[in-house]
Amino acid sequence: MKTERKWDKLAVDTRQRMEAAAKYIGPGKQVKKEDTVALLKAVIRSFDRVNIEGNNQKQADFLADSLLQVDPSEINNLHMVQSCVPLPVHLDMFEKGIAKKLDFAFGGPQAGRVAKFISEGKIELGAIHTYLELFGRYFLDLTPRVSLICAYEADREGNLYTGFNTEDTPVIVEATKFRQGIVIAQVNKIVDKLPRVDIPADWVDAVIESPKEFFIEPLFTRDPGLITDNHILLAMMALKGIYGEYKVKRLNHGIGFLTSAIELILPTYGEELGLKGECCTHMVLNPHPTMIPAIEAGWVDTIHCFGGELGMEDYVRARSDVFFTGPDGSLRSNRAFAQTAGHYALDMFIGGTLQIDKFGNSSTATANRVAGFGGAPNMGCDPKGRRHVTESWLKCGQEVPNMHDLIGDMPRGKRLVVQGLETFGEGRAPSFVDKLDAWKLAENAKLDLPPVMIYGDDVTHIVTEEGIAYLNRAPNMEVRMAAIRAVAGFTEVGIKEDPAETKKLREAKIFQTPEDIGVDRSRANRDLLAARSMRDLVDISGGLYNPPTRFRNW
């Protein structure tokens, strides 16, 4: 017997919510800022899955502050699904009882508080994801019922301009709207005509001109004045021993002073090595200001960005051959597409970490900080779904001695995953440890797994001031661990190094010192930097780069 079933329950529910909110929504879907809390109370129900757009950089902060003002006896137990939780208000909602469950990717400055709240039972943790993993779940089992997003401008019909910092907005809106959800946008300004339409009005239910511009963080700016000789030594080794060795053209740089140093010696040391045109031609990264000298020197063909970077707007607009820009001339960033390129199209990821264990697993977690992963694991892994071939990918795979044990005589390449760090980091904390703090954090915060950023079997190279460990050339775990000990310096891992064993590793080119690869330590100084200050970056950009005030010392 056929049972009568309703197939539009989501649409009916959404219609009822929007009918309750209709009195607050005017022409052009505009809502007065003073009606924002009432609007949220009309469209959000207890136990809803809610996304507050929280990116690496731009934040829907006015909507977050407004949601915090609802009465927890009326709206509670929300399940927050968002990539980042960097603002205090993101956690205040759990303290107040409005939210209960969290699925996220990156904690940023709230990492310590996330761990504390999990331990105290204030946060029920779903999982710590990578960005792509979380975005994928938006379209499966973590679709937001209501999403609170942000954009630079809206027009009188409700179309949105996300512009320079589009970041996560498209993926959030598409997942929410096409599953019958509700999308509410805060914008800095409502105008008659947008520079371009990034999100069509049909996908947006309400627009609020916020009382102040949304918060945005210049997360990817590194002052060249803070780059040390040690950073430059590591950068020289990376360029000569890895970039040049594998002819890496397609890559991502993590944030940090090592990769900034690499970017700043491309036009000097890199050109001396003859690598221009051979390396760094296609990149996936935010518009790092420290890339300006290399771009001006003609190193880079293409850069696609996860998000923007404050102060780089005019420079990017004037370099549209390099950056992806819209018809209006401003940057089009998109975290989902950049992460997809980072996962499947790159030949190398290079970045830093806080700790590496004796097996090569790395983590940015400490005992009481749930920092999350962000996008590093998507780029810092060997994507098994990759099928296209490049010279560097193939060479790295051909050097893996046990590949035959895994797939017989079938040829296959491998992503280069490089961890670059000094053996002792900030506060003289050892970078190499017998056991990651992630284990203790998992115990303290009641996590199912220690939060490992990059697993050891994905790491192909480690660069320290001691040299380079070519882990992809190690035939087994015993040799792999010996190579890690060789680069670990005077840490608890490094002091177990056996000189006779290390000598054999050098002969086999599994471990190489700077001298082995022809890097002259005496040249590792700031004279090699193409720009030595923020002012130099401005000058090299022809005045197009406009650093935020906090980076200006002139």
From TrEMBL:
Listed name of the protein: Malonate decarboxylase subunit alpha
Natural source organism: Rhodopseudomonas palustris
InterPro entries: MadA (IPR005777), NagB/RpiA_transferase-like (IPR037171)
SUPFAM superfamilies per the UniProt record, alphabetical: NagB/RpiA/CoA transferase-like
NCBIfam families recorded: mdcA (TIGR01110)
Domain of life: Bacteria
Transmembrane regions listed in the UniProt entry: none
GO molecular function: transferase activity
